[in-house]
Write a structure and sequence with these properties.
Blueprint: H1 6-15, E1 19-21, E2 33-35, H2 37-56, E3 61-64, E4 69-70, H3 72-77, H4 80-83, E5 85-90, E6 97-99, E7 120-123, E8 126-129, E9 139-142, H5 147-152, H6 154-160, E10 167-176, E11 191-201, H7 206-223, E12 231-235, E13 247-255, E14 258-269, H8 271-275, E15 301-303, E16 308-310, E17 313-320, H9 321-332, E18 333-337, E19 343-347, E20 356-362, H10 368-383, E21 388-391, H11 397-407, E22 411-415, H12 417-422, E23 424-429, E24 435-439, H13 443-446
Parallel strand pairs: 3-10, 20-21, 20-22
Antiparallel strand pairs: 1-2, 4-9, 5-6, 5-7, 8-9, 10-11, 11-17, 12-13, 13-14, 14-17, 15-16, 18-19, 22-23, 23-24
This protein binds adenosine-5'-triphosphate.
Adenosine-5'-triphosphate (ATP) binds next to β11, β14, β17 and α9.
Length: 449
């Protein structure tokens, strides 16, 4: 059962150390957030799960970690300098600024005035000076999507790791957009992370692969606890497609503030590789590409059957890490009534995503024997796990269970006097709250660590 409101999630995130407002002690910075001790673990597990499904479990996809600062020419030829904008309107009465396509009834959301300017395009890319002189000429963009460096590295990746079509390049990393009105917690922010795959295919096979990736992505979301029944597939209308897209499916999720895009799966055709290639007239390019006189590379593959070079098409599943975090958190959130009339908040996260895999809790805080044994158990589990196990030494078992319910720890392991005398521990299950006694040496068998 998802959360009732965004406020519930915001409050949990602050209380339990998932997400904080950035620079909060100075009043914050709009549309920018920091991930705390629990947030960084959940975020990492989401990214690891994506990476594993895209790179480790396949042989046709390679990884990349490219730079954030981007040569302006990359974003000139990608079309972003000309077209990566949102329609901006000003309220002439209160000076508020808004996205025209987000207004209800063409009224200012702050003062209700209808005295608004005509919409004008506002480019969303952040610029920064490069080098010691800020003369307005030596600048770079903070990348607005991770995709472009995949395209510009196409030949580097292919030359160093030869592959034939179809194959992909995957990347996870920060992207920046100077959103006119960042809002709805981490849903629309100015600094965020993306998980993007560019999957290169033969022209003509693109529609088949587009459908394939739609299915793959739905199945991945299901594994993260976001079932198909929670997602709507929007076939984006032609007049709303990005400049590079022939067809896009948006996966729409019911966030606490409304139904909005979680992931976009676009058929980017041969637009990007075509636009970044030199000597474009040597190729049959179907998209209307940007005329390029500055690139020194042909981003093409050799078709051995037809003995010619050709520019592949590309299918791009692009998901935001922060929106994934919000959707996963929302799906996992539960308020449950207990038999004693109290309620508990519990995050029923999939085990592979939980920030803490297991908490080891000594019954008493100041009993050295108990605490030392708990430390040993924690250390041994941590040695065989690449996710976090913690020692929870508060001396209050009930309070520890409540905390670990709220951060979604699947298992709590209690160390008591039987642990010393009989070599047993008590395992407490997050979802059922059932407890069972097992031998210390068998803990591994009962956990997903
Ligand atoms: P929207 O229409 O909501 O502005 P978009 O269509 O511009 O999104 P894309 O360019 O398709 O988004 O980016 C791919 C993914 O990156 C989105 O599906 C989303 O998960 C994420 N994303 C894009 N913009 C933001 C943002 N400002 N804050 C957080 N995540 C974002």
């Amino acid at each position: 059962m998802p959360a009732n409101s965004m406020d519930e999630l915001v409050s949990l995130c602050k209380r339990r150390g998932f997400i904080f407002q950035s620079g909060e002690i100075y009043g914050g910075l709009q549309g920018i957030y920091d991930y705390g001790p629990m947030g960084v673990e959940l975020k990492k597990n989401i990214k690891d799960s994506w990476w594993s499904s895209m790179v480790y479990r396949r042989d046709d996809i390679e990884g990349l970690d490219a730079s954030i600062l981007t040569n302006p020419k990359v974003l000139k030829y990608s079309g972003h300098e000309d077209t990566f904008s949102d329609p901006l309107v000003d309220c002439k009465d209160c000076n508020g600024r808004f996205r025209a396509d987000h207004l209800d009834d063409s009224k200012c959301p702050l003062c209700g005035s209808i005295n608004l300017t005509d919409p004008r395009p506002f480019n969303l890319m952040f610029k920064t000076a490069v080098g010691p002189v800020d003369d307005g000429k030596n600048f770079a963009y903070l990348r607005p999507e991770t995709a472009q460096q995949i395209f510009t590295n196409f030949k580097n990746v292919l030359d160093s790791n030869p592959k034939s079509l179809p194959f992909g390049i995957a990347q996870i990393g920060k992207a920046f957009r100077n959103e006119i009105t960042p809002r709805n917690f981490i849903f629309r922010v100015r600094e965020f992370e993306q998980m993007e795959l560019e999957f290169f295919v033969k022209n003509g096979d693109d529609e088949k692969w587009h459908e394939y990736w739609l299915e793959e992505r739905l199945s991945w979301w299901e594994d993260q606890g976001v079932p198909r029944s929670s997602l709507e597939i929007l076939d984006v209308p032609q007049d709303e497609l990005s400049h590079y897209s022939k067809k896009t499916y948006d996966l729409m999720y019911k966030f606490p503030h409304g139904v909005e895009e979680l992931e976009g799966i676009a058929n980017r055709t041969d637009f990007d590789l075509g636009s970044h290639s030199k000597n474009q007239n040597e190729f049959e390019i179907t998209a209307k590409v940007t005329n390029n006189k500055e690139s020194n590379s042909k981003l093409a593959v050799h078709n051995l059957d037809e003995k010619k070079w050709e520019i592949p098409y590309v299918i791009e599943p692009s998901a935001g890490v922060d929106r994934a975090f919000l959707a996963i958190l929302n799906e996992a959130y539960n308020e449950e009534s207990l038999p004693d009339g109290k309620t508990r908040t519990v995050l029923k996260l999939s085990k592979h995503l939980a920030p803490i895999s297991a908490a080891v809790i000594p019954l008493k805080k100041n009993d050295n024997k108990l605490v030392n044994l708990a430390k040993d158990v924690k250390d041994q589990l941590q040695q065989v796990s690449n996710r976090r196990i913690i020692l929870e030494n508060t001396g209050n078992i009930g309070k520890s269970y409540r905390k670990h319910d709220e951060i979604g720890t699947p298992t709590c392991i209690t160390i008591d006097y039987d642990s010393i005398e009989k070599n047993t521990v008590t395992l407490r299950d997050r979802d059922t709250m059932d407890q069972k006694t097992i031998d210390i040496d068998d803990i591994n068998k009962h956990l997903l660590i």
